[in-house]
Structure formats: C-alpha cells, structure tokens
Design a protein that fits this description.
about 200 residues; mainly alpha; about 0% strand; extended
Length: about 200
C-alpha cells in the first residue's frame, strides 16, 4: 500500500515540476514568441511597402553573397534578420564556402522552378506527352506518373486549372497567406509544389 502512495506522490511531484518548468520557460521567453516558438500577434500578410523593403534586403544579401563580400553580407543579413543563426556560424574563414553553397542552392532552386513551370505549362495546355516529360524531369519517381494516364489526364489538367482559379480567388479575398500556411480550406494538409 505504501508503494502505491509513493508512486502516486512521485508522479504528482513530477507533473508539478514539469508544469512549473514549462511556465518558467514560457515566462523567460519574452521575445514575442509563445512557448512553442510561434510568433504572437504576427501579421499574416505584409503590406506592399513591407514586401518591397524585404525584397530589397534579400537582394542586398544575395548581392553580397555573389560578390563574396563578407562584411557587406554581415551588414545586409543583420538588416534582414539580426537573429539569423548563420551570423554566428559563418565567419570570414568559412564565408567563401558558405557563399558558394548558397549560389549552388539558388541555382538548384531556379532549375526546380523552371521544371515546375514546364509541368504547369503542360497541364494548362492539356498536353499529356509534355506533362509526362516535364513530370519525369521534375521527379522521375513521381506518384502522379503511376496514377495519371492518357484516359484520366484531361480530368487531372482540369483539376489543376480549377485549383489555380481557387488560388486566384483566395488572393482576391486576401486569404492566400492563410491558405498557404495550412489554415484555410484549400490546403487539405499539404500543398503540391506544382501550384
């Protein structure tokens, strides 16, 4: 019987300690984030002026990387996000490698966007053969290649076009950001990279 009470007491003490620790951590986290790291009262959309400002800051970071200018990169990166982890990790010693890595990443991103545009173009044109070729270029093992054939491609292309129309409407209603973050009815838990 004593064992039972001892186990219960230890379990209760553990729960209370854990609760106190969570409350203390949440209290210490005074940077505008809630305990789980999500921003409180974060605006869901940026104004046109804010978007322009952010793009200018990103462009400055990119220019510094392309020029492999460490000091300019630090200044530009701090202007974009002074809490960026790379500011601690990247030094004058490893900056050249970091800059090259970022250039390679950007090249791959551009290649991926080009491939995704080819898929979209084929879908919008209703061209099955072009879609197969572009889908294979994007992902040789795409599950869509197993599911979509000449018989159901027209319907698949129609679904894509309807999704595009829905996205346009969501943007007109100023709900596109909520949708892309998974909060809107259009998401369904995951978003295809071809949208």
């Amino acid at each position: 019987m004593k064992k039972k009470y001892l186990v219960f007491a230890l379990l209760t003490l553990s729960i209370l300690t854990l609760s106190a620790g969570i409350a203390k951590a949440a209290e210490r986290n005074g940077n505008g984030d809630n305990f789980f790291g999500n921003k409180k009262n974060r605006p869901t959309t940026l104004t046109a002026a804010q978007k322009t400002e952010m793009e200018a800051k990103r462009t400055a970071v990119e220019a510094a990387l392309n020029a492999e200018d460490y000091n300019s990169w630090v200044t530009a990166q701090k202007a974009l996000d002074e809490n960026c982890p790379e500011l601690k990790r990247v030094t004058t010693t490893n900056f050249s490698d970091y800059a090259k890595e970022q250039k390679n990443r950007e090249t791959k991103r551009t290649e991926m966007q080009t491939k995704m545009e080819a898929v979209k173009t084929a879908l919008l044109a209703g061209n099955y053969d072009a879609w197969v070729a572009s889908e294979k270029a994007l992902n040789e093992n795409s599950p869509a290649l197993e599911k979509i054939n000449t018989e159901n491609f027209k319907r698949y292309a129609e679904a894509h076009q309807l999704r595009q129309q829905a996205n346009t409407i969501m943007e007109e209603l100023n709900l596109a950001d909520e949708d892309r973050n998974g909060f809107g009815p259009m998401n369904g838990g995951g978003r295809s990279p071809r949208q």
